[in-house]
Write a structure and sequence with these properties.
The chain folds into 3 domains: 112 residues, no CATH class; 219 residues, Rossmann fold, CATH 3.40.50; 96 residues, no CATH class. It has a 6-stranded mixed sheet, with helices on both faces. Strands 6-7-8-9 form a 4-stranded mixed sheet, covered by helices on one side. A hairpin with an 8-residue loop joins strand 7 and strand 8. The protein contains 12 helices and 20 strands. 33% of the residues lie in helices and 24% in strands. The longest helix has 25 residues. It has 470 residues and is an alpha/beta fold.
Length: 470
């Protein structure tokens, strides 16, 4: 469909400032006329004699090429202004209304090789888990999915997002040793997952300075410089909503560059801040609704998408906890009593999956220095044999408390079947609301083509037909 056939109200200029160059055209016309007046002339006794001596073709030759050049220049200036056809549309979105957080064990036991096929290559438990999770994510097109990794401590891999490409890439980065190489903190993984799956209060970014003013110091009850954490935490508590698109952190040291600081607030009691210093430009990320911002080296943006700050009332929230071990070191509190009961009160289901075999199994060895597989002098990986006990009873209690189910997966097929069962159990559809978006089509190529075509005609046709004879 040709967008030009639509209502003209959908046309806009993305860079209208270039249109100021159009004022150059009258100036060029004026200079052209002045130049004609200053050329050498001959005296004629009457105007009739002058007209007879200058045929119409000569007058045509004089002004048409110049007029074409001005018309071509106008088209090129219009192309620089980037005309666009924009149409705003609204359409109902059918979404499942399900928030899913997948918590993956990244302890050293996930390097066990007991899930390899007898006739296939050696693959670790984590390799199989990653492949199955990617398939699961691909099926849940309408859900928001987050990812948590854990060993002795939990680690947020990805906040809740519908950006499946981004999420799949994050799954590919999962590796043993990404957090700590030892320990299995099931309670910590549940705490982080529950925090991520609960409805989040989004606080729009705002600009702060580390050196707070007097009133802010008084509110904080201290004469010391007030931290950014306090200001954001205070704003979250008061449910203030700001409108700026970026949050900046102005360093306290003189000459330190302004660096971007992103935050996600999950209830006033929980705050996560991530900053980049002037010497360490890493990757920072934050979810604004379901859209994610990326920042690469030197602060250049490789992708950005802003959405409105709002709270989502998703009807179903689930956690899929996947582990091949038991709490190590033993927790001070029973995860079922502390976290599962609280999750049940918040309407969160926790599915648990125990991965691996009960018997002794071959396993790669993790090098604590490099956090990679330990290698022999010939370059082959070191393989040992070990038994990794799983506390299936606590996993079953956690699932039953929250109204979910607990599973065991000793091979790839069993794990894939489990995820298919969960996919079927949590298949719920509803119309979430109206999604507004805009359809934008660039039109600058039309005046650009027209301008170049006019120049081509002026150069080739008129120079050939009305060529000058010395």
């Amino acid at each position: 469909m040709n967008p030009l056939g639509e209502d003209w109200q959908h046309l806009r200029l993305d860079e209208p400032a270039w249109l100021w160059l159009l004022f150059c055209i009258p100036t060029l016309v004026y200079l052209k006329i002045r130049m004609r007046k200053n050329v050498a002339s001959l005296l004629f006794s009457s105007v009739a004699t002058l007209k007879d001596s200058q045929p119409p073709k000569t007058r045509f030759k004089r002004w048409v090429p110049f007029s074409l050049r001005m018309l071509a220049l106008s088209c090129l200036i219009l192309a620089l202004a980037r005309p666009q056809w924009v149409k705003y549309e609204e359409s109902p979105v059918e979404a499942s209304g399900i928030d899913i957080v997948i918590a993956v064990d990244l302890s050293g036991s996930m390097l066990a090789l007991d899930m390899s096929e007898p006739s296939g290559p050696l693959v670790t438990r984590l390799d199989v888990v990653k492949e199955v999770i990617e398939e699961f994510i691909a099926k849940r097109k309408d859900d928001r999915i987050g990812l948590v990794g854990f060993a002795s401590k939990p680690y947020l891999i990805s906040p809740l997002t519908r950006n499946k490409d981004y999420l799949t890439n994050r799954v590919k980065t999962l590796s043993v040793g990404q957090t700590e190489q030892t320990g299995t903190n099931i309670g910590g993984a549940l705490a982080e997952s529950i925090n991520r799956v609960l409805p989040k209060q989004k606080v729009a970014p705002h600009e702060f300075n580390l050196s707070a003013n007097t009133s802010q110091k008084e509110e904080a009850g201290t004469n010391e410089p007030v931290s950014v954490s306090f200001l954001v935490r205070k704003a979250a508590h008061e449910k203030e909503h700001w409108t700026k698109n970026e949050l900046f952190f102005a360093g306290a040291n003189p000459g330190e560059r302004k660096t971007k600081l992103f935050q996600t607030v999950s209830k006033p009691r929980k705050l996560r801040l991530s900053t980049t210093s002037k010497d360490d430009w890493g990757y920072d990320e934050i979810t604004v609704d379901e859209k994610t911002l990326f920042k690469e080296d030197k602060g250049n943006w490789i992708g950005e998408s802003y959405a409105t700050y709002s709270e989502h009332n998703f009807q179903t929230r689930i956690i899929i906890l996947l582990t091949d071990g038991k709490d190590d070191p033993p927790p001070r509190h029973d995860p079922n009593d502390v976290y599962a009961v609280g999750a049940k009160e918040d309407g969160i289901k926790i599915y648990t999956i125990a991965v691996g075999r009960k018997t002794e199994t071959p396993c790669y060895v993790l090098d604590p220095q490099t956090r990679k597989r330990k290698l022999l002098p010939d370059g082959s990986p070191v393989i040992t044999r070990a038994v990794f006990p799983v506390d299936k009873e606590i996993l079953r209690e956690i699932s039953e408390t929250t109204g979910a189910q607990s599973y065991e997966a000793s091979n790839e097929k069993a794990l894939r079947d489990i995820y298919e069962k969960i996919d079927e159990l949590e298949a719920y559809k509803r119309v979430e609301g109206v999604f507004s978006f805009d359809l934008t089509k660039e039109l600058f190529h039309w005046p650009l083509i027209a301008g170049l075509a006019i120049l081509l005609v002026e150069i080739s046709f008129f120079r050939a037909v009305f060529s000058r004879i010395p």
